[in-house]
Amino acid sequence: MGTSIKALLLLLALASPAFAQVTVSKGAVKRNFAVTGFAGDSALAGQVTDVLKNDLRLSGDFQLSPAGSAEYVQQQGTVRIEGGDVVVECVVVATASKQAVLSKTYRYNAQSVRQVVHRLSDDIVQTVTGQRGIAQTKIAFVVRRSNAKEIAVMDYDGFNVRQVTTDRTINVRPRWSPNGRKLVYTSYKSRFPDVIEHEVFTGIRRRLAEFPGLNTGAAYSPDGNTIALTLSRDGNPELYTMDAGGGNLRRLTRTKPGAESSPTWSPDGQTIAYVSDSRGSPQVYLIHRDGGEPTRLTVSPAYNTEPDWSRPPAGAPLPPMIAVTSQVGNRFQIGVASGASQEVPAVASDGGDCQDPSWAPNGRHLVFSKTANWRSRLYVLDVLTREQIQLPAVDGDASEPAWGP
Amino acid sequence: MRTRILFHLALAVCVAALATTGCKSRKKAAQPGGVSSAPTLGDAGGIETGSRPPEGSTYASGRYAPVYFDFDSTAVRPSELPKLQTVAADMRSASGKLIVEGHADERGTAEYNRALGERRAQATREELVKLGVPADNISTVSYGEERAADPGHDEAAWSKNRRCDFVVAGQ
């Protein structure tokens, strides 16, 4: 059974260099970094300095420190407004070699000061670690507006919140296309749950799936050509795939009276992880993209849902893993399944009900929702260091985040 | 906190693969779904879901009593069957479409609750078909946990929220 899937899992594990004996203690991977600041208009310079410090902290790769004890020093740069542009000059020097490892001038539209700094921060991360940073990524999420739920998009640090839909209906479970240009989500605009494709930059929308019954859970394959989703058109919620533009529908499961939900793709696009309650409580299973016998991935805790499969780039500190929402007692927590055990260890469980995990493209950070006192907020967790920060609160409950590419 | 990161994954996966080789002889019926042949549409072991009412339909709710469910269960309780008989008595001969709206209580995760609500709606729909309502005249909607009947956060509220509502669509 499922031999091909096990082989794939094995391949995934072998393909990653990181499962070799990596022992990380909290903070051990962090480099001391000194942000000296910027000369220029004081309000603007202060903003640039603050955003840079926050970005470097959020990256998980740096510990902010005084210049005297820093491995890297950002020497005092300059910031100015020129025409309609903001211009930032920045030099970063490695203390050991006394060499400038980064020396660059950034020029952006003055409306986008934060974006300039995010770019600078990603350049620093790339220079020092060789890995792509996450400071320029976006997070889509669901925001409650009285009795409605709408889709919104924000920067990875919780700033620049922009509401994408204003339908005054239920719009939920956004997922990004691999190129970051489209979102798919479940919309009740027609009174029935449909899968909608939404071009983020143009606002153009199209209904991709509007079959009788439930249409939900759409998730793009890594190449962007296929969508996995849950449909009940055949009389029971089952797992299907279809072409990304709609059509060429294929059913992968047959589990009446079980229900399948929440598909997520393996990094190589050959395997789909999903939730099924066909053997009792909901657990995560793996199935080949063309169907066949599923393999059970999780057994314990007794309730594991909302899998999200990370796609870390080559050389990333963590291998591909599947984050889930586990229920233990009456509480929800975020767990991470690696394929090593059917028992899912918790990575975030404190301070409320933790749900809806979604991986950053670095396969290291997770965004998730935490509900306490019936209010839901978004948090970012660095799985490597277990550090957790709350994103700036938005107006209205935030849930079901999806980290963009 | 010292965190041992990620186990000896390759080794462990090998072990897991070996450990589950024994599953080979297990009967197919025990597997959680999956079609061993090429994927097909149609026959999913259920009754194909009825088509949606046409656009511009009017919707009447509150005519029939909701059907309630046990926690994390999608089985229609025998005690609820008389309610379905009332619905079926009207809908057997009615020309309008019936929409069964499935709901879950707020516990549980959002997408799982959408699937759970749909299962409840489908289970209810099947009982109605058994009672003589034409299958294509009944469509389903799952709202998951989005539309609570009772906004409370205790079992008294949750037991009212695990339900199916009935909406009649007309022209």
Description:
The complex is a heterodimer of chains A (405) and B (171). Chain A is mainly beta and 405 residues long. Chain A is built from three helices and 31 strands. In chain A, the strands form seven sheets. In chain A, strands 2, 3, 4, 5, 6 and 7 form a six-stranded mixed sheet that branches. Chain B has one domain (26-169): 2-Layer Sandwich (60s Ribosomal Protein L30, Chain: A), CATH 3.30.1330. Chain B has four helices and six strands; from the N terminus they run E-H-E-E-H-E-H-E-H-E. Chain B has helices spanning 9-20, 81-91, 110-130, 155-161; strands spanning 2-4, 58-61, 67-68, 97-103, 138-144, 163-170. In chain B, strands 2, 3, 4, 5 and 6 form a five-stranded mixed sheet that branches. Chain B is globular and about 40 Å long. The chains are: A mainly beta (405), B alpha+beta (171). The interface between A and B is large, with 96 and 65 residues. Strand 1 of chain A pairs antiparallel with strand 1 (2-4) of chain B, so a sheet runs across the interface.
Blueprint (SSEs and pairs):
The complex is a heterodimer of chains A (405) and B (171).
Chain A: H1 3-15, E1 23-25, E2 31-35, E3 38-40, H2 42-59, E4 62-64, E5 72-82, E6 85-94, E7 100-109, H3 113-129, E8 138-145, E9 148-155, E10 162-163, E11 171-176, E12 182-187, E13 194-199, E14 205-209, E15 215-220, E16 226-231, E17 238-243, E18 250-251, E19 260-265, E20 271-276, E21 283-288, E22 295-296, E23 304-309, E24 322-328, E25 331-337, E26 346-348, E27 353-359, E28 365-372, E29 375-382, E30 387-390, E31 398-403
Parallel strand pairs in A: 2-4, 2-5, 3-5
Antiparallel strand pairs in A: 5-6, 6-7, 8-9, 8-31, 9-10, 11-12, 12-13, 13-14, 15-16, 16-17, 17-18, 19-20, 20-21, 21-22, 23-24, 24-25, 25-26, 27-28, 28-29, 29-30
Helix pairs in contact in A: 2-3
Chain B: E1 2-4, H1 9-20, E2 58-61, E3 67-68, H2 81-91, E4 97-103, H3 110-130, E5 138-144, H4 155-161, E6 163-170
Parallel strand pairs in B: 4-5
Antiparallel strand pairs in B: 2-6, 3-6, 4-6
Helix pairs in contact in B: 2-3
